[in-house]
Specification:
- The protein is of the alpha/beta class and 412 residues long.
- It is 40% helix and 11% strand.
- It contains 17 helices and 13 strands.
- It has helices at 33-43, 53-64, 69-79, 83-92, 117-121, 124-136, 173-182, 196-201, 206-213, 218-228, 240-248, 269-276, 278-292, 306-318, 336-339, 342-350, 363-372; strands at residues 2-3, 9-10, 67-68, 98-99, 109-114, 144-149, 161-163, 166-168, 255-260, 296-301, 327-328, 358-360, 377-378.
- A four-stranded mixed β-sheet has the order 6-5-7-8, covered by helices on one side. A three-stranded parallel β-sheet has the order 9-10-12.
- Helix 12 packs across helix 13.
- Residues 322-358 and 360-412 have low confidence and may be disordered.
């Protein structure tokens, strides 16, 4: 109420009150029953813990070739997360395709044209325009769509087009049409890379064995790193030997992460050695983990490197499945409990079981691996590998983790 100039009381309705009827639907984004059923069926008995969000977004993307608003809302409800949090994560990565309410479904086959500096200098803009014209005139078929893509790590082969997961080097419209017509959308794996047999025949994993057996003391490894002057490339130029020594001296749990992502134009060294000499990378990773006594190693491989992902899957599966010299019955090696076991101490002393560290696909897969490590295993000398990731994880774009199988020794 308020007073008028004449002194009369003027009544008005308060903005937060009134006789209006309640809205027919509750406040907030509603979950459609069909979408909820589909998400429940897709996730099955998987954990609803928030750490699995990105992997579940990949499941949805793989099944429906897009992330619809209805499915995102259902996933948020199923995982007890805010829709804004799920939407923010999904929209951060280029390989997730978001479809908002009222928008038509997207064509399932994505043709990505790299448009960053190197490819642009090689004619990517003109190539993109030609492909968009073909798309508009139905020259690529109704199931394909053309989009721009950030650097795919093939700057030496510019311009590059990715048809599904098939990368076309020095691409042109005719090659793209041919790949789409033939349904050639899978990654092409080279047959000339150094596989496990070739690597071991040339002395591979011998250095790892010497370090783990004690024949080459860890202090000597660190001294060698100091002598080489090797430094990190993160900007600060921190000496590698000093960094490893600092991590080794930390009293708490030590974990190791290997960043296989490179998105800056002109940067593709990781892609090159992962596609050509994967075991040199794996042995180096395990040497580093052994020196600093890291219990778990996490590898991050970007979605734009499907060839490297497939090669690592194949080669990790070839690693020795068991280790001679000791038996761990139900131990979660190489955790602290396993290290305190008499068998562990004996194996370290006798160098019968030089394996310690394991490569874990993701935090979720690592947890699943630990929960499932209840069967006795024997150790063979270096590393062990499981045939599949305990969590069924996979690598996808951005910061998404990838699970390809956990390398664990001595327990698998």
């Amino acid at each position: 109420m308020a007073g008028s100039a004449s002194g009369e009381v003027v009544r008005f309705e308060h903005p937060g009150a009134g006789r209006r009827r309640a809205k027919p639907t509750p406040k907030g984004r509603q979950v459609l029953p069909q979408a909820k059923h589909e998400i429940e069926e897709l996730l099955g008995d998987r954990s609803r813990d928030r750490q699995y969000l990105i992997e579940y977004l990949h499941l949805i993307q793989d099944k429906w070739h897009q992330l619809s608003a209805a499915h995102l809302a259902a996933l948020a409800d199923e995982m007890r997360l805010a829709f804004a949090e799920v939407f923010e994560t999904a929209t951060f990565y280029a390989h997730f395709d978001i479809v908002k309410e009222g928008e038509p479904d997207l064509a399932p086959l994505v043709i990505r044209v790299c448009d960053t500096v190197t490819c642009a200098m090689a004619g990517a803009e003109a190539l993109y325009a030609e492909l968009r014209h073909l798309e508009a005139s139905d020259g690529l078929g109704a199931s394909a769509r053309v989009v721009r893509a950030p650097c795919v790590g093939l700057c030496d082969q510019a311009p590059v087009v990715e048809v599904g997961h098939h990368f076309l080097h020095k691409a042109d419209p005719a090659a793209v049409v041919a790949a789409v017509t033939a349904g050639d959308t899978h990654p092409h794996i080279p047959d000339d890379y150094i596989d496990y047999g070739k690597y071991v025949a040339a002395g591979g994993y011998a250095l790892l064995g010497r370090i783990r057996s004690g024949a080459l003391p860890v202090d000597d490894v660190l001294a060698t790193l100091d002598g080489t002057g090797l430094r990190g490339l993160g900007g600060a130029g921190f000496p590698t030997g000093r960094k490893w020594r600092s991590v080794r001296n930390e009293p708490g749990l030590r974990l190791m992460a290997v960043n296989g992502d490179e998105g800056e134009p002109g940067t593709f060294k990781d892609r090159h050695y992962l596609n050509t000499d994967p075991h040199r990378f794996l042995e180096g990773t395990l040497i580093g983990a052994t020196v600093v006594e890291a219990e778990d190693v996490y590898l991050y491989i970007r979605d734009e490197y499907p060839v490297a992902i497939e090669i690592l899957r194949r080669e990790i599966a070839k690693l020795p499945p068991a280790c001679r010299g000791c038996t761990f019955a139900g131990a979660r090696a190489p955790t602290s409990a396993a290290r305190k076991a008499p068998c562990w101490k004996a194996s370290r002393a006798s160098a019968a079981c030089p394996g310690t560290s394991r490569l874990s696909p993701t935090k979720s897969a690592c947890s699943a691996a630990r929960r499932s490590s209840t069967t006795s295993k024997r150790c063979t000398g270096c590393v062990t590998s499981s045939s599949a990731a305990p969590s069924g994880g996979r690598a996808k774009g951005g910061m998404a983790a990838w699970g390809y199988g956990a390398i664990r020794c001595p327990a698998a």
